[in-house]
Write a structure and sequence with these properties.
elongated; 6 helices; mainly alpha; single chain
Length: 177
């Protein structure tokens, strides 16, 4: 009998928590005309620590959830997140999987790519696209700064969630106390 492997569910729930907390932060930052985008964090733990199948399931379902929250055509976030995941999985053997510094750097680059891709896709819907770029630049700077602060906490949250479930993130085997 095959045992259920809940690693994708743990990562998905942590990603949903991050989306909720980012939404709360954006609500309070709206008075300052700043919007945070932390999409780069939604892929990092899955790409660096989970196996390919579990990472694919977690990121695809996260992308569906993000699509339901953002004003983008349905499937945009799924495609972008899976593209980033495939790129990171391709080069994962060369990456150090443990350690916050490398994860922060990768999260910054992933977030930059996702932010620019979404900006180019959505800036045409703005009534004044030429003036939107300055605001997008400020949002990008704020998002990258927030990402530097939040990444160690978020990676530790996911690692602790795996430890509480007594599951090794890379193998999926039960870990005894």
């Amino acid at each position: 009998m095959r045992r259920a492997d809940p690693r994708w569910l743990i990562v998905l729930l942590a990603n949903l928590l991050l989306c909720w907390l980012t939404g709360l932060a954006n609500h309070y930052l709206a008075g300052f005309s700043v919007h945070l985008y932390l999409g780069g964090l939604l892929v990092i733990f899955s790409a660096l620590r989970l196996d390919r199948r579990q990472a694919l399931i977690a990121v695809a379902l996260t992308g569906v959830a993000v699509d339901s929250l953002l004003p983008v055509p349905f499937g945009t976030s799924v495609v972008l997140l899976l593209l980033v995941l495939a790129t990171l999985l391709y080069g994962r053997q060369r990456f150090p999987r443990e350690g916050d510094v490398f994860a922060i750097v990768v999260a910054l680059f992933v977030n930059l790519f996702l932010f620019i891709a979404l900006s180019f896709l959505l800036v045409g819907a703005n009534p004044r696209p030429g003036q939107a770029w300055l605001r997008l630049f400020v949002d990008l700077l704020a998002s990258q700064f927030a990402l530097i602060l939040v990444t160690p906490w978020f990676l530790a949250l996911q690692a602790q969630a795996m430890a509480l479930a007594r599951i090794h993130p890379e193998t999926g085997r039960r870990v005894s106390l």
